[in-house]
Each structure stands twice: as structure tokens, then as C-alpha cells.
# Entry
Amino acid sequence: MKKTPTRQPSSTRTLETDGDAAGAERLAAPLTYNVRDLRKRVGNQAHHETTFVLPDLGVVATRVPPDSPITLTVELEAISGGVSVTGSLSARYVGECRRCLDPVSGDLELGVHETFEISPTEGETYPIEGDQISFEALVREAIVLALPLAPLCREECPGPEPEVFPIVVEGDAGAVPADPRWAALDGLRSALESGTDSR
# Structure
């Protein structure tokens, strides 16, 4: 008699963050999934949903706060030599507008279509180690690639308000102080100019 694939029980794991290091450590637990029973027969399926946090997740101008929940919802299916994972990933990011430097935020809603294998192909599939798969690398790569590199608070943002932060000409006696948020860049420019003059 031909055996038909079975569907494994759904699993949902949702953990709340305490906003501290201990809370973040506990929230790392849902990033792994045991596929031993799933892989007993090709075609077996399972549903998995988990919420967690991840530190150090960002690019130059935007980032996912370390205490901000990330949700992964996937369908897993046993295939020859591995497991296919299809679903969605959601997270919220924050950053600074590239023109006016005001705070910006937004939501990421990403599709997930990946494969985990016993013998993974570097850069193409993810590893199955023992009977476990880890979603961390998948999540990090998907979010980092999706984060905006130069966000805007709004499309028509004109930049700093000239009445509040006017353009200052060096040496102008009546000059108004420049935007204090650019102080670090001004200091770097001065240091570079000093180094050039000394040579």
C-alpha cells in the first residue's frame, strides 16, 4: 500500500521581550526547528510561526531595534535531501531621513522561499545540522537586504528648514549656528583641513 505524506502538527511560539539582555537571550530560542519527524517521508508538511528579537540588525541609515519583535510564519515541506521553507517575515525598522535627519520608521513585509539541506550549497541553500535548522541566517540576510539604505521621512522632504537651519557662510559675522546634528561631520572636515594645511 502506498504511504501518503503526513502533515505535522502546527507550532506557534511567541515570546515577549523584557527589553533587557536576558529577555533578548530567551527570545533567540524560537530561531531553531527540529525536522527529524518531518523528514521521515518526502512530502511531509508542517506549519511554524515564531516571534523573536535579534541584536545588531541594520545597515548604514536604518536598523531593526534590538527589542523590536520580528515574526516568521512558514510552511515546511520535506523534500529529497532537505526541507523547503515558504512563508513570510515581518519586522519594523527605524532610522533617519537622508535629507532632514528627522526620525523615520517603517514596516517590512517579506516573502520567504528557501531550502535547507544536509549538504548545502554555499550561497544558495542553508544547512541542516543534526536534526535542527536555524532560521537566524535566513532572517538576517532577508532583512538586511530589504532595509532602505537612504530613507526619506516623506518623498517631498525639502531637507532642513532654512529658517531654522540656514546655510552658513564661513566667516560671516552674522552667521546663525549650523544644524547641531552635523557637528560630527563639521569636526571631521576641520580635522582633515588641518591635516592638509600642515603638509
